[in-house]
What does this fold into?
Amino acid sequence: MGNSLKQSFAVLILLLSCSNEPEEISYPNSQKIDFVETIHGYEIKDQYRWLEDFTSSDSQEWVKKQNDFTKKFIDKNKFKKSIAKNLKKTWDTESISIPYKVKEKTFYYFNDGSWQQSKLMIKDCDDCKPRVLLDPNKFSQDGTISLGGTSVSNDASLLAYAISDGGSDWRTWKVLNIETGEVLTDTIQWAKFSNATWENDDSGFYYQKYDEPKNELLKDINTAPKLMFHELGTAQSEDIVIYENPDKPRWGWGISVVNESDIRFLSISNGTDERNRLYVQLKKNGSFIPLIDELIGAYQYLDSKDDIFWFYSTENAKNGKVVSLEIKNNSFIWNDVIPEDSNSIRSVNFINNSIAVTYLVDTFSEIKFFNLKGSYINKLALPTKGSISGFGGELEDSTTFFSFTNFVTPRKIYEIDLSDMSTKTFWEESLDDYNADQYISEFKFYPSKDGTMIPIHISYKKSLNINENTPVLIYGYGGFNISILPNFSKRFLSWMNQDGVVAVANLRGGGEYGDTWHDSGRLFNKQNVFDDFAYAAKFLHKNKIGSSATTAIQGGSNGGLLVAAALLQNPGLYKVAIPQVGVLDMLRFHKFTIGWAWESDYGSPDKKEEFKNLLSYSPLHNIKKGECYPTTLVTTAERDDRVVPSHSFKFAAKLQEYQGCQNPILIRIEGRAGHGAGTPKDKQINQIAEIYGYALSVIDN
It folds into this structure.
């Protein structure tokens, strides 16, 4: 071969090899504005801080360009259509909530599968036909204005209900006459993180109100709330302040009205700390007397009878216990009723003149019944393990409802007669072409970095031949004492129906094993959560359940922080990362809306040692320039006023800038949506189909 021919052949080979290289990604321009501040002696750069003004025209233009760019990647792939079809089929089936009774009326939410939002139904008597009491689908044409809470008056004649606009945490309360369907003139604005608690005589209700935001509705800091009482038929401007403490702007309020009594219990919270102060008001309009005036445990009012008041408490009981309070001659006498168990308490209900306690046994529910003095009676027997909720009602009620589900069993609602423990099926979820016997969910433990054994649920089709090429979705949360329990999920089913495995890890920081588990994953122990998550992937891969080339990770809110930290700390361990509505700037989370309340789990950036700990894992501040990070799809929403979208905006912009390879860094910003609650059906289906479809297409390539 001559030299010229050899050279031509070499050039051809070079061209062919170059043509196989992935095309360099050209991201939308994200303007950088130099900004440096010194915090506790550390210089912190924040060149994308302008995106914190997320409603500005510049930010909105950035959002449009990013969404248009992302759409080119996620809009069409061979999985999206199949997932959407599967989701529509499973969503287009009826669903209801656990019914609850007030007087002779029964209330529950119902969706026939075609509505964007579930309707609130009522049965006026046991033998009456159900009718629609409130239809949130009429609030807006696109279903983005949702029902944010309800409260039935003591005599079941009135319904207070809250409206959420576009997913916002702000609530507007209205009042409905249950008999006539008339909406009264009463309107309550600027309520947040609040129930409507009716007075005994139903003359009005209590609620928590914040000041109207001065600057920006969706990002102004929310502090110094007031506990208000609204008298029916009056203007909100005439509402009475029941309790406030301007000197403690981070304190929040919740009130419990004791039936047929002038006694009120005031719960005083401090952010998301489970522990609370407890005050009592012995007569109407009287002063509140401190019962528990230090943060020594959680105290939640449960019920009362014959001048005995029962509470759930974690004082000197990290797994929880039931205690009683007797008020005699202005003295307060506390007694343990049901002492702490080796398993943590998830919920307590007073029903049939007994106490129903739901315990968590390795994430599965166990229901035990005790008499009012705390002596064990019996427990609920079920053929399979799963999550149980319900047992609501009045102390004297002998019948009630509960639901059962797990990762492969759709929800079933039972009516139970507690006098003989007999049950009958009230309703069960029926999905087209779904047979639970064709799926399996395995429960295992794996060792984390420090040797702690972590629970994990692994769910998939029985027919699936699992190996290193199997797509795996790992989901986690790990924070705020929140337990991620076995629960049938249509979105997880859509992944399994694409021949994938879903693994849900019960990370430290949650409440699966009580306060001890929570404490071992918060504040200076937060790194344990990220290690637990990474070692879940390592455990799966070691057992030939997928590999780093087939694993996607997903989490939302605090779970979004988890996924972002995970992809930065172990970029080679995952193929796709999906951090959703995440807390991603750990140095400024406390600067917006209710973010300061999370300091009980994260620590305060204003304290040097806690700042240093936050800086060690803050996703925005730990991106390494030139590192090859996995394909990442960040998701958020324009109206998220819980975790403001600027967290995701800044993180995505910087990760795009610093990405050292051709794995795409994308951000999907939903319009007319918030942190997740109240999102209409069609939006949910489209979100899941786009996100999972794209993740599977990346794994498939």
User: Anything to note?
Assistant: Residues 1-21 have pLDDT under 50 and may be disordered. The domain at 26-88+433-700 is CATH 3.40.50.1820 (Rossmann fold). The longest helix spans residues 681-700. The chain has eleven helices and 39 strands.
